[in-house]
Design a protein that fits this description.
The structure is a single chain. The chain is an alpha+beta fold and 413 residues long. It has 16 helices and nine strands. It has a single domain, classed as Cytochrome P450 (Cytochrome p450), CATH 1.10.630. The protein is 49% helix and 8% strand. A four-stranded mixed β-sheet has the order 1-2-7-4, sandwiched between helices. A three-stranded antiparallel β-sheet has the order 3-9-8. Strands 5-6 form a two-stranded antiparallel sheet. A hairpin with a 2-residue loop joins β5 and β6. The radius of gyration is 21 Å and the shape is globular.
């Protein structure tokens, strides 16, 4: 065992240059030396072994609400305590995002939203195909472009806009607001970025409430109309709760799907044999997307609060203590995934945990999968000779804590 101190949770973020360059050097060490590691600085246990992570995710009795954690759980507490001056929420909006809710409020809000969203996703492939084709059409004739700015960022924003029912005349504003509110996830914003965030958040909230009112007066074929109809049928969700959760779907889904697409393109271009495998057998696209999620998923961690005294991997954990789950570490556990650091789209193995699990399984996961399954083949079919402009240059990963995505991805056609 190394005499070097074990990494803490803050070392396991892109703010640490070593982690940014190669997260698995630190995660592999934690998993092998101390898979249930008490990080006193963050006030949390850090889990890196697949069996432990999967077990916690599957335990639906554990809590998600950071308010239920002990005072020492400073990292979890910070999520709830952050207040951004200039963003005011009505009483039925504050603390009502399903990501950090427990039952009964979690089920009350999530179940009807999931019902409407999944029904819509099940029939929106033609809509996604049109969006992808429109975006790729703008790239025709270009010798070079940035996969992130010119493709990966645009696909999920335009798809969710159409699913929600955003008016075509407001699409440009909606894209701007969407990019602005993603800054919520950056705890190291500059004052200028915070100003952009506040303006975008206020405008998006106002628009979402306006859209809910408009669809109540005149229903259309979109998700907001679906939700208004469910409210009329008795779904106990207020307009404020609906608005804040639709915005959360937008923020979380756009960032992570952007990174899913970008990470996929990067690894296919770095592994041309896998790309040829996909081109030769397009039916591999579903397993290819799952391998990208396992190999380079967009999200690093998720958290739970112990609702009772637990034993995880032989380590006692007391009620109200915080547990942070390394999704990335679990997805590269060699006990579960043979040769885990190899990108292999024909891999058949245990399901990954990139979308979390249990009652808090990512609500947008079916849509993220669909968008990647459509976007990747379309991109490589449109540009069959696509290649990295600087194949030997190290990738530029963003420094956003607990997320994994590229700043840019310049390619030649």
């Amino acid at each position: 065992m190394s005499e070097t101190p074990l990494p803490n949770i803050f070392d396991l973020t892109p703010l640490n240059p070593s982690f940014n360059e190669n997260p698995h050097a630190l995660l592999d060490r934690l998993r092998s030396e101390c898979p249930v590691h008490r990080d006193t600085q963050a006030g949390s246990f850090v889990l890196t072994r697949y069996a432990d992570v999967r077990g916690v995710l599957s335990d639906t009795t554990l809590w998600r609400d950071p308010d239920k954690a002990e005072p020492e759980a400073v990292l979890q507490k910070r999520i709830r305590e952050e207040r951004i001056e200039g963003i005011e929420m009505e009483q039925d909006e504050g603390r009502k995002g399903i990501l950090l809710l427990d039952n009964p409020d979690h089920a009350r809000i999530r179940n009807p939203l999931a019902k409407a969203l999944y029904k819509r996703v099940a029939r929106c492939r033609p809509q996604v195909e049109r969006v992808v084709d429109e975006i790729l059409g703008r790239l025709d004739g270009r010798a070079q472009f940035d996969v992130m700015a010119d493709f990966a960022i645009l696909v999920p924003i335009d798809v969710i806009a159409r699913i929600l029912g955003v008016d075509d005349t407001r699409l440009a504003e909606f894209r701007e607001w969407s990019e602005g509110v993603i800054l919520t996830l950056n705890p190291f914003r500059t004052p200028e970025q915070t100003s952009v965030l506040v303006a975008a958040a206020v405008a998006l909230s106002d628009y979402m409430k306006e859209l809910i009112g408009a669809r109540r007066a005149d229903a259309r074929d979109d998700l907001v109309s679906d939700m208004v109809a469910l409210q009329a049928e008795g779904a106990p969700i207020s307009d404020g709760e609906l608005s804040v959760n639709l915005q959360s779907l937008l923020v979380g889904g756009n960032l992570t799907t952007t990174d899913l697409i970008g990470n996929a393109v990067f690894h296919f271009l770095k592994n041309p044999a896998e790309l040829e495998k996909l081109k030769s057998d397009p039916t591999l696209i579903n397993s290819a997307v799952e391998e990208v999620l396992r190999f380079e998923g967009p999200v690093d961690i998720t958290g739970r609060i112990a609702s009772r005294d637990l034993d995880i991997g032989g380590c006692p954990i007391r009620k109200t203590q915080s547990v942070m789950l390394s999704l990335r570490g679990a997805n590269h556990d060699p006990e579960v995934f043979p040769d885990p650091h190899r990108f292999d789209i024909s891999r058949t193995s245990t399901p990954h945990v990139a979308f979390g699990g249990g009652t808090h399984l990512c609500i947008g996961s079916p849509l993220a999968r669909l968008e990647a399954q459509v976007a990747l083949p379309a991109l490589f079919n449109r540009f069959p000779k696509l290649r990295l402009t600087k194949p030997d240059a190290p990738p530029r990963w963003r420094s956003l804590p607990f997320f994994r995505g590229l700043q840019d991805l310049i390619v030649d056609t």
